[in-house]
Amino acid sequence: MNHVVSLVGAGPGDPELLTVRALKRIEGADVVLADDLIDPRVLALVKGRLLRVGKRGGCISTDQHFIHALMIKEAGAGHRVVRLKGGDPFVFGRGGEEADALREAGLDVEVVSGLTSGIAGPAAVGIPVTDRRASPGVILVTGHPGEGRTEPDWAALARTGLTLVIYMGVARAAHITAQLLAAGLRAELPAAIVSAVHTAQQRHAVTTLADLPRCIAREGLASPALLIIGEVAAHAVPAAISQAQQVNG
Ligand code: SAH
């Protein structure tokens, strides 16, 4: 039988949001390669060797080839290897590239789905992303496609009228907002920013599309965060209430 590497989704933060399978894989691993975005409470569940790889932001990895080589080496030595990734392993964050590299090296790959931040984040602050009274769907999109990759067609996305959930969008919020406004979205369209969801640092703010970049600066909201644009964002609970719930959790 081939050696297996498990690509495991750690969810957005709180270990209570791990799947049962993710917990089993984490606890059963000889070696865990973890991204920087993983919550310390999840890392505390690791019983084997813990190797921190990647750097803040999660998706701009230090040296992707180094990570591939390390996984292949450890699995080849017969160790149970878990590659622990924030949220869901196949929603951004290069899970697909890692799976390809492992398969090319003759390893089997198990994908253990996790709760992606783009779904958990809006929900954590009361935003129902596909509330049928406002939007028949939701688009998960990156605001930072990466060096040499195609920029999302913001005008086309705006025309769908669907809720937009933008990952890695904080640093480029001014650009994205300008593109969406130019494409005809209303300046007053509700917009929310949800930062570090399901971690001890969770914060959010609700505003309008036109005010989004200023709001991020005013509130000092930083990555990791999601931008949520659409009528549904108006359902967000006031920031003070959500923070109190988080503390009492
Ligand atoms: N695979 C991850 C996404 C990795 S890309 C997932 O499914 O969630 C990294 C981006 O995800 C961050 O820039 C941010 O936009 C988002 N993100 C990850 N964890 C987050 C969290 N706890 N709170 C808010 N956004 C988060």
Automatic annotation (TrEMBL):
Single annotated GO MF: uroporphyrin-III C-methyltransferase activity
UniProt key word Kinase: no
Matches recorded under Gene3D superfamilies: Cobalt-precorrin-4 Transmethylase, Domain 1 (3.40.1010.10), Methyltransferase, Cobalt-precorrin-4 Transmethylase, Domain 2 (3.30.950.10)
Protein keywords: Methyltransferase, Porphyrin biosynthesis, S-adenosyl-L-methionine, Transferase
Enzyme Commission number(s) of this protein: 2.1.1.107
NCBIfam families registered for this protein in UniProt: cobA_cysG_Cterm, PRK06136.1
Designated name of the protein: uroporphyrinogen-III C-methyltransferase
Record organism: Pelomonas dachongensis
Protein's gene: cobA
